């Protein structure tokens, strides 16, 4: 029973590593790769995992020391506010009742101002 479980687990692990998208793991189970190349790939994979753990722990220590970082930029005139390449929005993002109410009020205000306007009131509002 133990041999069968061990063999099944190894076959599952082999298929998992062979199908993964992590570069380097496929080379560890490939039968056509030389043993020295497998050692190199295993060293690279271990170094990548160690680097990931080190960076994650370092960032976590930074977060624990100062959880909130506030920085103010004084050169606001040279800000470059680039827009994101893609924006995700949920499907029904507009409340049609509120939109209709707002549009009716806005259009009604515009029509009333336009219809009751005279040349003198326009000149007074637009101060040149």
Features:
128 residues; mainly alpha; 63% helix
Describe the overall structure.
This protein has 128 residues and is mainly alpha-helical. It is elongated and about 95 Å long. The chain has helices spanning 2-19, 25-29, 35-65, 96-115, 119-125. The protein starts with a helix and ends with a helix. It has five helices and no strands. Among the domains are: 25-70; 95-128. Helices cover 63% and strands 0% of the residues.
Quick structural summary:
With 128 residues, the protein is mostly helical.
Q: H/E series, N to C?
A: HHHHH
Q: Gyration radius, to the nearest Å?
A: 33 Å
Fraction in beta strands: under 5%
Judging from the principal axes of the Cα atoms, what is the shape?
A: elongated
In DSSP terms, counting alpha (H) and pi (I) runs of 4 or more, how many helices?
5
* Overall average residue pLDDT: 80
Helix content: 55-70%
Spans where pLDDT lies below 50 across 5 or more residues: none
SSE blueprint and pairings:
Blueprint: H1 2-19, H2 25-29, H3 35-65, H4 96-115, H5 119-125
InterPro entries: ENaC (IPR001873)
Family: Belongs to the amiloride-sensitive sodium channel (TC 1.A.6) family.
Subcellular location: Membrane
């Amino acid at each position: 029973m133990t041999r069968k479980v061990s063999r099944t687990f190894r076959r599952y692990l082999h298929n998992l590593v062979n199908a993964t998208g992590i570069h380097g793991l496929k080379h560890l189970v490939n039968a056509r790769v030389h043993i020295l190349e497998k050692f190199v790939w295993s060293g690279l994979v271990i170094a990548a995992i160690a680097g990931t753990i080190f960076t994650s722990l370092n960032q976590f220590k930074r977060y624990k020391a100062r959880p909130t970082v506030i920085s103010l930029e004084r050169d606001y005139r040279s800000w470059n506010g680039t827009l994101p390449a893609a924006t995700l929005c949920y499907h029904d993002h507009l409340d049609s009742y509120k939109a209709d109410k707002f549009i009716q009020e806005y259009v009604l205000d515009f029509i009333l101002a336009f219809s009751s306007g005279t040349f003198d009131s326009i000149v007074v509002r637009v101060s040149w």
